[in-house]
Amino acid sequence: MYNLLKGKKGIIFGALNEDSIAWKVAERAHEEGATFVLTNAPIAMRMGEINKLAANTGSEIIPADATVMEDLENLVEKSMEILGGKIDFVLHSIGMSINVRKGRHYTESNYDFTHKGFDVSALSFHRVMNVLYKKNAMSEWGSIVALTYMAAQRVFPDYNDMADNKAYLESIARSFGYFFGRDHKVRVNTISQSPTPTTAGSGVKGFGGFLSYAEKMSPLGNATALECADYTLTLFSDLTRKVTLQNLYHDGGFSNMGISDVIMDSFMEGKE
Ligand SMILES: NC(=O)c1ccc[n+]([C@@H]2O[C@H](COP(=O)([O-])OP(=O)(O)OC[C@H]3O[C@@H](n4cnc5c(N)ncnc54)[C@H](O)[C@@H]3O)[C@@H](O)[C@H]2O)c1
């Protein structure tokens, strides 16, 4: 442990169960000396798992649907009361596509589903920053991070409309990040994470194949949820103060690969 976040206060969205990337971020942030509020959609809390995380990290839970402005306003106000001041870090770890869930093919999108998925997965990031900005809730040199996936840049057919949502999310990070940097010295970045076995990840069709392909393509192998948490903490720490408006790949090198020996070998059988 490095005491990287000693004395820092945060809000962590998206811890659903112990597989969640946000869950690992919360555990690691606690170990590094941070205090924070946990939040998730009221419906996601019915399973009650988040209570365990709250107990283990000494955190309070404030339910908020990230598509509802009043919920977010209440969350930010209460968090500042509970934590006793402005917020140093925020993690947006939220994603959901009804088209994916219902197995709708991308070319046959149900646009009501598309709207809802966009609202939850992309626009919610704008809403969160809007509330933080308006309420002047972030400390100077604070840090806001959202999680994304490389389907925003390259085609992964089964990622469906989440690819478009992630492209929009990454753009919001840059656009809002400009104003947050200029006016409040707050940095805003996205982390583009390897495929990771979580509830959201496993919902993508053919996820198992996806996971092993990426593993074999990446020189360092896939990054785990815990490793993603470690990387996220560096962005919350004071060691990365001038990193902003970036989409940062945390994927074992996958994003810059063309082909790896292992993948090549699987195509060479019987060819030489
Ligand atoms: N798992 C992967 O392969 C992978 C890869 C790259 C990026 N990501 C991203 O990481 C983030 C976290 O996902 P995860 O993999 O930990 O899965 P997860 O299912 O554990 O987390 C998704 C979270 O979004 C929350 N959520 C859904 N609707 C909400 C709403 N209306 N308001 C507030 N919260 C809501 C869920 O309750 C859940 O906690 C997502 O943005 C996801 O797209 C995941």
TrEMBL record:
<dbReference type="InterPro" id="IPR002347">
    <property type="entry name" value="SDR_fam"/>
</dbReference>
<keyword id="KW-0443">Lipid metabolism</keyword>
<comment type="similarity">
    <text>Belongs to the short-chain dehydrogenases/reductases (SDR) family. FabI subfamily.</text>
</comment>
<keyword id="KW-0520">NAD</keyword>
<keyword id="KW-0560">Oxidoreductase</keyword>
<dbReference type="Pfam" id="PF13561">
    <property type="entry name" value="adh_short_C2"/>
</dbReference>
<keyword id="KW-0275">Fatty acid biosynthesis</keyword>
<keyword id="KW-0276">Fatty acid metabolism</keyword>
<dbReference type="InterPro" id="IPR014358">
    <property type="entry name" value="Enoyl-ACP_Rdtase_NADH"/>
</dbReference>
<dbReference type="InterPro" id="IPR036291">
    <property type="entry name" value="NAD(P)-bd_dom_sf"/>
</dbReference>
<protein>
    <recommendedName>
        <fullName>Enoyl-[acyl-carrier-protein] reductase [NADH]</fullName>
        <ecNumber>1.3.1.9</ecNumber>
    </recommendedName>
</protein>
<keyword id="KW-0444">Lipid biosynthesis</keyword>
<comment type="pathway">
    <text>Lipid metabolism; fatty acid biosynthesis.</text>
</comment>
